[in-house]
Amino acid sequence: MTIVIACFIKPAFDMYLLYSRLDSEGLTAEAKILKKETQTDSSFLEIFSSHAVNNLIRVEFEDLRGNAHESVLGVSRLFYDKYDVGDVIQVLYLRDDPNRCKAAAYIENTKYISKFVIICGAIAWLLFVLLPGIVGTLLISRADNREEIKLEISEMKCPECCLPMQEGYVPLISGINWRCKGESVGLLTVFSVLPGTVWWNPFNRPKLHGFHCPRCKIILFKYRK
Is the Cβ–Cβ distance between 69 and 47 less than 8 Å? Predict the structure, then answer.
C-alpha cells in the first residue's frame, strides 16, 4: 500500500516542483503550434474511462538567445479545440533547460492541483500507517467487559515476606506459556498457552484476578474458573 501511495504522490510532487519553478523563474515566449495529435492513455486511468485520451500539441518557440526549441505540451480538450495549427500561444520555459516548457495558461492551476494531490496522498499514507495502531489501541483500551476470573480470596499474604499483597488483575493479549520443571521450552504459540489467557475476541479481553507483592516481585493469579 505504501508503494502504491508513493507512486501516486511522486508524479504529483515532480509536477509541483516543475510548475513552481516555471511560476517563479520561467521565461515567457510566443510559441507557434506545429502539430496537434491525440494519444490513448493505457494507464490505470482507463479504469474510470474507456476513452482516456491525451491531447497533445507540438509547439516551436525561441529562447532569449534566439535558439529555436520544440516541445510537446499536454493540454485540456477545451484548449486543444480552441487553437489550430499555426496559432500562437504563450509558454513558460526554464532558462537553464528550455525544453522544460509548459503552456502559460496552466501554470497556476496545475501547481495547486498537484499540491492538493500531494496533501491527499500524504494524508492517505498517514491513515494507512497510523490507523491500525489507533484502532488496536482503542480495542485494547475498551476491551474490559469480560468477567474477571477471580480468586475466592479477599486477602493474600506474600509467600516470601508474609506481608499483605496488592489485589489487582493481569490484562492479557497473547497468553501465558507454562512449562513444568525439566520440560523443554519448545515452540511458543498462542495454541500452547494456559487456557483462558489468550485474547481471541477483540471485545472480550482476559483479565486474570490476582495479588502482587512489589517488594518480592511475586504475582499470584488464577487463569481459569
Answer: no
